[in-house]
């Protein structure tokens, strides 16, 4: 990027909202996938939708690559910067523009924190259902880009199930409005197409969210098991009984160790796994379901079953689960987390395979996952200071992804493809299917300037390269930590 382009870019924003000093850029060099870094040419911090639109139109005119970024919690390298491109940081667009309790909607800007929507809706007896583990810091814009889920997506669905409409600026600079305040729309579902685009179409400016009534009561149970397989079998039994809990989560011994160390979580001792089951809804319905759940857990071989007696105990159970990813940092300096999906009936088989492979690789692997929908979250621990450790972790992660596809599942449940899983897209989709996706992408971004290098296969994906170095590594553009 020439000095002239930088000067004209800076003129689009008030003084101080373009950052180009090395110390300023360092904070944006990676996202939650820290194994790889890239340095953008500049970071810009718009504060209004009009400023975002002006920036995108400038990028289109100059053919300047840009990456939209919220809090940077992506775990797939989805907001990895583009060298000689810019990062458009959206955290200042953090207003809840409208909250309508009667219509049960909230219209928010992309930089609004996920948990802030529920905080604003709670006085009206409402909440925003998608609850990623990072919900206290992740932004709605990022949730939309990656179609985030969370512990309660089993019952309530993903982000795409709760976005009714949006206003966005496409990579061409065109401003569009899709959907609206109601599900009663006619014609193509452009909103559904936009959600999960991983930043390749453009930037959402205003997002209309569906709010749900807060459940009248919760029944949260923590059950300890001697083996992961027993916990997985309990999940199968619960699902087979036609119960639909709000959440079904499993943590293994290593994840439990991390959560105890980080937040002093209180879990049953000497367990290889714990299962968290949460029922929610009207008191009468939960009371009836509770009896069925008690019977299933009594027959499941649980060594101990604890029931949250109040909101504080429920919060403590979930605090341990929600902290699991960050807590693993106490056990290892580095880790890769996957989010492949397998059919629920094959959970036990998948976990046995992962544990066997981790032993072969000489790497520890903590398992935390949304058991209700088969969304695995193996955290592969490694030390980037040890030569070859990252390569072994990547190889293990790749085997897990291929296993998920072979079992009839997916390479990603909610983290997205990003740069991490690009090379594995052909394992899941045919060349014709990928070609169709690329044509759709080109319709929204004909110049390929919006978050380039993400999702679609190239010769060697950076975080999970199937062989050798990524071409950009060879050129010195991106680097391993």
Topology:
Blueprint: H1 3-10, E1 18-19, H2 22-26, E2 36-38, E3 42-44, H3 49-62, E4 66-69, E5 86-89, E6 96-100, E7 105-108, H4 114-121, E8 126-127, H5 140-146, H6 153-156, E9 163-170, E10 175-179, H7 190-194, E11 202-210, E12 212-213, E13 217-225, H8 228-240, E14 247-252, H9 253-263, E15 273-281, H10 283-298, E16 304-307, H11 311-322, H12 324-327, E17 334-337, H13 347-361, E18 365-370, E19 378-382, H14 389-406, H15 425-428, H16 431-444, H17 471-474, E20 478-480
Parallel strand pairs: 3-5, 4-5
Antiparallel strand pairs: 1-3, 2-20, 6-7, 7-11, 8-12, 9-10, 9-11, 13-15, 13-16, 14-15, 14-18, 17-19, 18-19
Helix pairs in contact: 8-13, 13-14
CATH topology of the domain at 96-213: Uridine Diphospho-n-acetylenolpyruvylglucosamine Reductase, domain 3
**Biggest pleated sheet:** 7 strands, antiparallel
**Number of H- or I-type helical stretches:** 17
Order of strands, main sheet, comes to: 16-13-15-14-18-19-17
Percent of residues in helical segments? 25-40%
Low-confidence stretches: 460-478
Q: How far apart are the first and last residues' alpha carbons, in Å?
A: 25 Å
Spatial extent as radius of gyration: 22 Å
What's the level 1 CATH class of the domain at 96-213? Alpha Beta
Query: What best-fitting shape do the alpha-carbon axes yield?
Result: globular
Beta-strand percentage range:
15-25%
From the structure above, extract its key features.
481 residues; alpha+beta; Uridine Diphospho-n-acetylenolpyruvylglucosamine Reductase, domain 2; Uridine Diphospho-n-acetylenolpyruvylglucosamine Reductase, domain 3; Alpha-Beta Plaits; seven-stranded antiparallel β-sheet; 20 strands; 20% strand; globular
């Amino acid at each position: 990027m020439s000095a002239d382009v930088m000067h004209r870019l800076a003129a689009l924003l008030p003084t101080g909202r373009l950052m180009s000093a090395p110390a300023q850029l360092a904070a944006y060099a990676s996202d939650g996938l820290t194994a790889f870094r890239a340095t953008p040419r500049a970071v810009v911090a718009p504060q209004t939708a009009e400023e975002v639109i002006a920036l995108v139109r400038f990028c289109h005119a100059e053919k300047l690559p840009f990456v939209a970024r919220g809090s940077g919690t992506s775990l797939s390298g989805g907001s990895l910067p583009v060298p000689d491109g810019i990062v458009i940081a959206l955290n200042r667009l953090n207003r809840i523009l409208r909250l309508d309790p009667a219509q049960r909607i909230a219209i928010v800007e992309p930089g609004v924190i996920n948990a802030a929507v529920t905080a604003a809706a709670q006085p009206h007896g409402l909440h925003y259902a998608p609850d990623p583990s990072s919900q206290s810091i992740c932004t709605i814009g990022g949730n939309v880009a990656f179609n985030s889920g969370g512990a309660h997506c089993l019952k309530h669905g993903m982000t795409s199930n709760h976005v009714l409409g949006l206003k966005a600026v496409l990579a061409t600079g065109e401003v569009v409005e899709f959907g609206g305040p109601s599900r009663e729309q006619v014609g193509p579902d452009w909103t559904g197409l936009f959600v999960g685009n991983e930043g390749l179409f453009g930037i959402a400016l205003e997002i209309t969210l569906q709010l749900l009534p807060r459940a009248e009561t919760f029944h949260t149970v923590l059950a300890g098991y001697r083996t992961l397989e027993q916990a997985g079998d309990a999940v199968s039994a619960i699902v087979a009984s036609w119960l639909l809990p709000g959440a079904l989560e499993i943590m293994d011994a290593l994840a439990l160790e991390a959560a105890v160390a980080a937040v002093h979580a209180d879990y049953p001792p000497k367990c290889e796994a714990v299962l968290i089951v949460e029922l929610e809804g009207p008191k009468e319905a939960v009371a009836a379901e509770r009896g069925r759940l008690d019977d299933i857990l009594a027959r499941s071989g649980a060594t101990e079953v604890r029931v949250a007696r109040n909101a504080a105990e429920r919060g403590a159970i979930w605090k341990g689960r929600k902290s699991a990813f960050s807590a693993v940092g106490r056990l290892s300096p580095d880790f890769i987390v996957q989010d492949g999906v397998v059919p629920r009936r094959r959970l036990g088989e998948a976990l046995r395979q992962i544990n066997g492979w981790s032993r072969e690789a000489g790497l520890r692997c903590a398992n935390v996952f949304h058991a209700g929908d088969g969304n695995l979250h193996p955290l592969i621990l490694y030390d980037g200071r040890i030569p070859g450790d990252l390569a072994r972790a990547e190889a293990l992660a790749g085997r897990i992804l291929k296993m998920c596809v072979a079992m009839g599942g997916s390479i990603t449940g909610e983290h997205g493809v990003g740069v991490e899983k690009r090379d594995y897209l052909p394992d899941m989709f045919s060349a014709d299917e990928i070609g169709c996706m690329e044509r759709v992408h080109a319709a929204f971004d004909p110049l390929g300037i919006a978050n380039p290098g993400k999702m679609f296969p190239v010769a060697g994906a950076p975080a999970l390269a199937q062989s050798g170095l990524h071409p950009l590594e060879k050129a010195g553009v991106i680097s391993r930590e």
